[in-house]
Every structure is written in C-alpha cells, then in structure tokens.
User: Fold these one by one.
Assistant:
Number 1:
Amino acid sequence: MHHSTDRHISNLTKDTYALVLAGGRGSRLYELTDSRAKPAVYFGGKFRIIDFPLSNCINSGINRVGIATQYKSHSLIRHISRGWGSFKAKEFVEVLPASQQNGEDWYVGTADAVYQNMDIIQSHNPKYVLVLSGDHVYRMDYGTLIAEHVANNADMTVCCLEAATEEAAGSFGVLTVNAKNKVMAFDEKPEQPNEVPGKPGTCLASMGNYLFNADFLFNQLLKDDGTEGSTHDFGHDIIPSIIKENDVYAYAFKDPDSENQPYWRDVGTLDSFWEANMELVSPEPQLDLYDKAWPIWTYQEQLPPAKFIFDNDERRGMALDSTVSGGCIISGSTIRKSLLYSSVHVHSYSLIEESVLLHESDVGENCKLKRVILDSKCNVPAGLTIGHDKEQDIANGFRVTDKGVTLVTRSMLKALEKKSN
C-alpha cells in the first residue's frame, strides 16, 4: 500500500510548478542587507536562506522552480546560476527578475509577482502552483501538502503553523478554520489574533506558502489585476476575497511522527539571525544539517579543509562547541560557541565567543569578540575588542541590537579606521 501513495505523491509533485518569492528587502537586518536581498543572506556556516526552500522543492520531487527576484538581486542570481543551474532539461531552477513584463511596475505585492510571471508559468502547463516565501529557514516535504490539498478538493491551501498569539500579533496573517481545516476567516497582521479552539494563547499563523490549482490561481490573478484599490497581495487582497465562495484550506506544518512543531525560523531581525545561527552550534540542534535523507544543497567554492595551528601555552589554535567551515585558518586563537563561514582567518592571541563570522573575514591579533555578527570580507584590526562594552561599540560606529548583539560591517570598520587616523 505504502508504495502506491508514494507514487501518487510523486505524480502530484511532477505536476507542480513552484515559484519562490525572493524579492525581500529584509530591512530589519539593517546593514546585513545593504548589498544583498534577504533570501541571499548567509546562514548556518555555508548556506544562504534561499537554499532551504529550494532544497525542499528538489527533495520533495518538485523539479520546476522559478525564483522571482527584485531587490539587490545580484548576489542571489550569481548564487543560483552557480549552484542551482545544473539540472536535466525538464528540471530547472530559473530566475525571473522583475522585468516589468506587464506594465511599468516592479513587483508591487506578492500576488503581482506571480501575475507578472503568469505567461512563463502557463507555458509549463502545471496542474498546481506552489508559491513559496524565500525568506525562511525550515525543512518541509511539500508532497504531503499537495496530497492533502487534492484530498480536500481545495482551490487553495495555506501552510500555517501554530504560533503564540502575542508573537503573531501585528506580524503574521492569521487563519480561522472550522473542524475540517477549511478557512473561515483570514486577517492580515491583526492586533488581536483569533485563537485556535481549545488552545488558548495559540493561533494559526500563515507561513507565506500557498498552493493553488493553476487555473483557479490564474483566474484570481486576472480578477485581482482589474480590481481598483487592490494592493495585489495574497494576504491583504486575494485570500480575504476568495474564502467565502471557494474552498480554501489550512495545512498545519507538523512533524508527522511526533505532531510537534518542526523547525521554522524567520531570521528577519539581527537578533533572530544571531540566535538561529547560535542554535546550530548547540550539541543537538533542532535543525539537523547532517541528515543525509534530506540534504540542503548549495553552491560552495572548492576550498581546502579548515586548519588549526600552534599548540603551546601562549597561543593555541582551537575551536570548542563551534562550527568551522572549509578554508578557515585558526592561528593560535580560541573559538568558543561560534560559527565560522568559509575562508575566515583568525590570528594569534584572539578570543572569539558566541559570534557569527561570515565568509572571508579576517580577525587580527589580540582581538576579543563576543556576541558579534561580523559581515563578510571584514578586516578587524589587531587589538580591537567588540561586544564587551556597549557604549564603546556604539562610539566605534557599530550597530548594537536590543539583545546586545553587535553587527560589524566593512564600511563601519573603514569609517572607524578613518576616524582613528
């Protein structure tokens, strides 16, 4: 019996086209997204955020994927073309930049991003269209979602997770469903979210992932395009306008074995970005990047292995409770509870604690870093202490978050160098 359901799901995923919305500005990441879109932000030692939804597609058997990009998309497009361009002819990951195909606008809202690419999607003739947010880190088998959508005879299915009402208030779309998970109401970022019956303090929050029957989607997009005053957004406009007349269902994202909430992170703020990276260096993180059954694919340079040098009492190159990527050289310094991305060089007598060092950064001798996010290609001058004295960090021109994490970028270090000369 088991095999026929597997085959049923693989037929459904073959009939699906996935569109990843990767235009996000990610403004709450401040200088971390000055030069890159949020989906291109690095995560977990060697990945970028967009690798997670893309890997979910490939691992789920969805082999036709479009990526709608707009804001600062250069590094994202380069990453996709290097790392995701080598599939067979019928399988592809294609980049769909906001090219003002229908009219003069960039992508206005989430629905408009799909509408502007409607011709391209229709040319692949899918039965189902899966619209995904490119901003979140999680692992999910979309096959079970599509199977449930078909079993419900749904027009649209909204992926959601159970969230604490105070967390969801003002930041997520919230669904109200009946006993069969049919959506009865949808509120975009409400101040007072409706609670899940029998679960006080929790509500159903939309993940920003939507599955549609293709024809139904195209009809709704055409209708929405002609609607005066629409913001052309799924959460704001389309979902509220269709729930009365059509069959819209909620799909709860749950771990099939334990019914627990699986790992899902919106690394949309500097604090949440730092916390999610820090979780990965704990001994048994909830996100297992070592699971061979569900690999996370990415583009990575061919780099030599990480190297640790010097072993005497004055200086010893070592890393404890840390993740160190290829190409790193730890030279007579101590790394504790930190994540080092590719090709980071830390020089002697330095101490790095609870920090996230992005690729190709270089830390001079006698530096002390604690709870720091160091952007890529930074050169930290010898003798600098960061993250130990908030007032000093602010005076040095670094950004300190509410939770006391310090962001350091190349331009901040250049400004500091000018000031001290």
Note: The chain has a mean pLDDT of 90.
Number 2:
Amino acid sequence: MKQEADIRFHSQTTRNSIAFILAGGRGSRLRQLTDWRAKPAVPFGGKFRIIDFALSNCVNSGIRRIGVATQYKSQSLISHIQHGWGFLDGRFHEFVELLPAQQRIEETWYQGTTDAVFQNLDILRSHNPNYVVILGGDHVYKMDYSKLLADHVEKSADMTIACIDVPLQSAGGFGVMSVDADWRITSFAEKPANPAPIPGQPGHALASMGIYVFNAQFLFEQVIRDHDEPDSSHDFGKDLIPYLVPRRRIFAHRFMDSCVNMASGVPYWRDVGTVDAYWEANLDLTHITPDLNLYDEDWPIWTHQEQLPPAKFVFDDDDRRGQALDSMVSGGCIISGSTVRRSLLFSNVQVRSYSNIEDSVILPNVDVGRNVRLRRVVVDKNCVIPPGMRAGFDPLEDRKRFYVTENGITLITPEMLGQKIHYVR
C-alpha cells in the first residue's frame, strides 16, 4: 500500500508542476560546434540532441507541461522541438512550449537565468502550477524528477537544489554548497576559488547541477525581488541562491537518490561543454558496457525520428571490405568498402571505398570520400571530406586548417573545409 501511495503522491505532484528549461546559451567552449546552434541543439549519441535528455526526463517523470526558453541562434533547436516533441497531447494540458526572448516586459533580451523566468512570469502564472522545476538544457543524464519533487515536498522546502559529488580540483566551475545533517544548505558559493570539501571527504565537494525545484509562488516573488535589485546580475547561482540560503528553507537533493539506471553503479551526469568532453562522452557509448545506458526500455530518450533505411555495409574483398568494429552506426549510413573502428556515426553518413576511420565522432549528413584517413576527430554536420584527406595524425598540420584541442582531438567543420552551408543545422 505504501508503494501505491507513493506513486499517487508522485503523480499528483508532477501533474501540478511545470518544467522551465533554460536553453538559450551558446556553450562557447564547444568552439565552432556552436557557431550556428545553441549548445542544447548540438547532436549527441548518434541520433539525439543534448536537450532531448532534459525533455525525456520530464516526460518519463510525469511532468508533461514544459517551457523551453531560447535565445542564442535557436533556429535548429526550435526546428528540432517542433519536429520531435509534438506528440504531447494538448487535450490533456500536455505541451512543450517554446519561449524565445521577445522583450515581453522590457526592451531587453534575457539578461540572466532569473531574468529569463521573470520575463515569462505571465506565461508561467497562466498555467497555475504548484511547483516549478528549473532545468538546464545542456547536460547529458537520466533523472527521475518525481523523486526530486517528492523530496522537496517532504521537507517543506521553499527551494531544493539537486547536487552531485565532484572532485575538489574541478569544483571551482560549479556552485558549491555545504549542508547540515538534514541536508539543509548552510552555505553556497558560485564558482569559488577555494571550494569547501565535503566533511569526511577531503577530495570532493558538493556541487549544484543547475536543477532546482521551487514552490511556484515563492519563485515568482523572488524573481520579482531580484529584478528590482539594481546590483544583481539576475543569475540563480550568483545572486538568487546566495541571497536565499541564510533566509529561507533551501535544501539539497542527492542525485544518487534519483539517478535512473546507473550502469556502473555511479550516477551518470556529463557536462559535454568542451570538444574533449564531447568526444569522450560520445565514444563511451561504443564501449561494451557504456556508462550511459541507452538501451533502457523503462526510461527511453525521446527524439525526432527520421524515417531512414537501416545502415548498410557493402563489399567484402580483401582490400575493400565494408565493416564497423566496436562502433555505433546510425540509420541511413552506408559504409562502402571501408573500415570504421571505435567510432560513432550519426545518421546519413556515407563512407566511400578504401577509407579508414578510427576513434572518431561523425555527425549527420557527412560524406567521406575515397582513401580518407581520420583518427580522433569530430566532424561537424554536412561536411564533405575530400578524397585522400588525412586528419588526426599530425596536430601541427591539422592546426593550419582545423581546431585541435589540448588533448589532440581535431574538430572539422564545413567552413574549415571551405564549404558554405546555407541551411539550419
């Protein structure tokens, strides 16, 4: 009976909630991958976009009222949501609503994360939620938000912040908090120079995931108050949370308690915010047992499904064999007399004869010519790789045309190849 009561409680709580996804950022550390798209719209995992993970978490958790705030070069993100997320049923008050910056209140675009909420207060109020779940649209993870909401309600919190353990040496890039025995937050510092370690764990800090639950009326009051503060930068981490922690009931929620299907027993959460991190997270999916389980029927990742034929591998001659080893190959791909090893190919990639691709991430609609050698590269959407090209073998040579990371990953885009693309990515 207790389990049934919990399910009903979670269902009622999620039905009375609305999710607000902040998806307006560029993600400049991804370099040229975000020249023409916002970070949440960057392809990931062979067939998805990064924002699909936050959206899927909402739907799978029972939160079916979702607003997505967009700003920076949002056309591909808007197109993706329109094509892939129209299955929610408005007759049951389910929706994914796009909320582009449109100067609804003042003649300014979104000035910060709290300002994005402030500028959409009339829309949020019109849905009359009890709770508002604030999410970023630029992280890869699987999380049951209903458990986060239940924790928030059980503790009679004004605000709850989802948190994760991170190594102390990398904690300076996060909001770092301290908590008491009841997990009430006692201090919070945004990107501190000297992060405070977790008591008893000197090598780790408790970091904010940028996932928040608010009592709706409390959130509305606080973003209005923050808007009226002349010295505020209108940011949750920099301004709102430090103000609230000593004054109101602000609690932390451990990601361990709501992470879904941990393949390795460790909560999976990735900020694929650099080219190195993006390459590594994608290639992890090709491993025998990847850290992120995409084969979970109980918690699917939803996305726009193109109607494509299955991947095809042709030619079986000794010097011309179409094959992919320890790799993921998406629909619409043709591997023609070439070898792909330890790589991830998105949809509609064609690899022509006598080529070799290793340890690489190839985004959709790429045409790889004959006799090409690629190793440790990320190839952006719509590239045409000319016959005989080599990349990923000589960093000094690659840097003359492409972007090469400190770890030696080469990023290739159409513009770097002298190819102009005139349509949405």
Note: Confidence is low (pLDDT under 50) at residues 1-5.
